[in-house]
Each structure stands twice: as C-alpha cells, then as structure tokens.
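Chapter review: from sequence to fold.
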Amino acid sequence: MNQGANVRSIEALGELRSALAVYEEEAAAALSMAEADIVRTIDRIRAHNIPHWKKEITRREEMLTRAKSDLARAQMTDHSMGPKSTVDERKAIARARREVEEARIKLRNSQRWFRELEKQYTLYKGRVAPMQRMVAAEMPRARHDLEIMARTLDEYVSISSDADGAPQQASRPTVASSGASEGPSRRAWKDLAPSRRLRSRAPLASDSVEVLHAGAGAVRWALLDEDSSRRLALLLGAADAMEIRSFDPAQVARSLGSVAEIPPTEDRVVIDASWDLASPTVLMRSANAPLGDSGWLISRSDVTEPPQELVAIRVGDAIKAYPELAIALSAPRSTVLLVREGELIAVQDERGRPLSAFSGGTLDDPEAGPHADSDTEGAR
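The token string follows.
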C-alpha cells in the first residue's frame, strides 16, 4: 500500500543542512588540530629533545673529565705545608656524575616516548580514518542530497498547488537578481558563511575603496541608499543615527544604544571576491567569528555555495569608503541584511527568518515584498 512521505517542514531540511555544515567545519577543524598537535609533539622530540640531550651528555661528560683533572692536580700539589683538602674537587666530580646520569636518563626517556608516540600515532590514524572520510566525503554528499531533496519537494509543492487551482508558488522563494516586487529569500543564510579558517586567511586589501567599489567604475553607488539607511536606523531604535558620517565607535554607541554591537575599528570585514555593487547583496554577521574579526561578510545573495575567495578590509576603512555602513555594521550578531541596488529588502536571522526585534511597520513585510506599502497606497 502506497503511503505519502510524512514531510512536515521543507525548511527543516535547510536547517539540517546548515547544522551539518557547521558540524562538518567544526569536526574538520578538530581533526586537523588534533593531528597537528600530535605531529608537532613527535617532531619536537625528534628534532629538539633527542639532539639536545645528546649534546648535553657530551658537554656534561667533558665537565666530569675536567673535574677529575682538577682533583688530580690538587693531589699532586706540593704538600710541604701540609696536606691540601680536595673536598671541593670531589664534590664537583659527584655533581658532574649526577648531571651526566640525568642527561642519559632524559635521552633514554625521549627516545622511548618518541617510539611510543610514533606507534600511537599510527594506531590513531587507523582509528580516525573512518571519521575523516565521513567529514571529507560523506558530509558534503549528505548536504548535497538534502539540497536536492528540498528542491524536489519545493517543485512538488508547486505542482500540487497548481493542480489544485491555487497560484503556483514555491514554499521557499529565492532572491531574484532583479525585479523589486519579488520577496526576499527565506533560505538558511548560514550556508553561505565561509569557514573560520578561510576568513582568517583572507588577505587585507591594499585599497579598500577599490574593493568596495568592486567594478562600479567611476560611479559611486551607495551600498545603502538614504531611505534604507534611515529605516535601518529606526529599526535599531535610534533616529539620530543618521547623523553619523564617520566611524567613531563612541558616537555610534551613543546613537544606537544598547542594541548595537560596535565592532572595533581594526576588526576585519570580509568580502566575496566575486561580489560587486550591482549584484543582489547579503550582509551577514556571524555570531561565531574569530578574534579581530567583526563577523561581517559582504557577498552575493544569488549564490548557493560559500565564497572560496575572500578579501578583507578594516571596519574603519569600510566606513570611510561608505559612511552608511556605520549603521549597517552596528547591527547585532546573527543579523542578515538583504540589499538590492542600495535598497534594504529585509532584515533576517541566519536561518532566513524575519527578526522580530526589527518588525513594527518601519520595514516592509518580508512576506509581501519590498514595495507592499506603496502598492497598498496605490490601491487606495
């Protein structure tokens, strides 16, 4: 007997895919760090400890020989004035012998632990190999399968709705590259987040203005137009934030209040190398950024994979090139801003859900599209 698939939420597949991506990154990092620690310890024993104690044995044996020579000279000294005490020379010999024995024990221990660690490292590699294969091959394949499943179910829902006479609509609309009437994406934006390792390796741009202008030629486009900047400032609860024209963290903090998390001027903002101002844009701030990283990523919103080529600029340089970013970059962590041609389309979290903290009528309803209010006014 045929039974329907009991799929209650297509969005849950996207959330699972995001969770798998996070686990894959963290597991790969943990495996890499563990192996690096083991190899570093083995190399230190082989390249430093063992040669060090061999040299120490040679040096201390020379000290022992010198102490014995000192004793012999003391014993052959003229004793016409009476026997000379050789207590100090004998103590020096005893001390030198102890130091030689200590160095020999250290060398034996270093050689023993070197052999033992090499043996354990071989066993470790065999035992951890299945997990490494899972992280390197099976996890990416699982994420790909989940994406295919979600896309197939979206198409199925669309076909079913059309067959029932309802308007054809996918359960998860995507961000369009053009067309202001289309609604924002409800995707899991965490899927676009580059790894911490990739973020930390992003080179600092020599010319931040050139990077931010990104192929716009001589035209100076606003990343956020004046109206969008004003709406975002209102959503952050600070109408006077529009007075910000340079990045002064103290001034921004006073204007935006406690809701803002001000990144230090020297923190990094990473930018997808393929992004340009004409692209539909996502500005997303990760909640788990490395030290010295603001967590912000500026990327295209019409891509399906995390950017692999990044460039970094300082927060202060970004604000200098685009003053309106003083407001955008002060949004809380786990915030996603969707922008198209300077217009703020939606404010969401990393899972694509509208942030309740930013709701209240000042931003267009994400479900209705960015121009819902203007359409309503026209209908009136």
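Two observations follow directly from the output. The chain has two domains: 10-75+87-160, 189-366. The longest strand covers residues 293-300.
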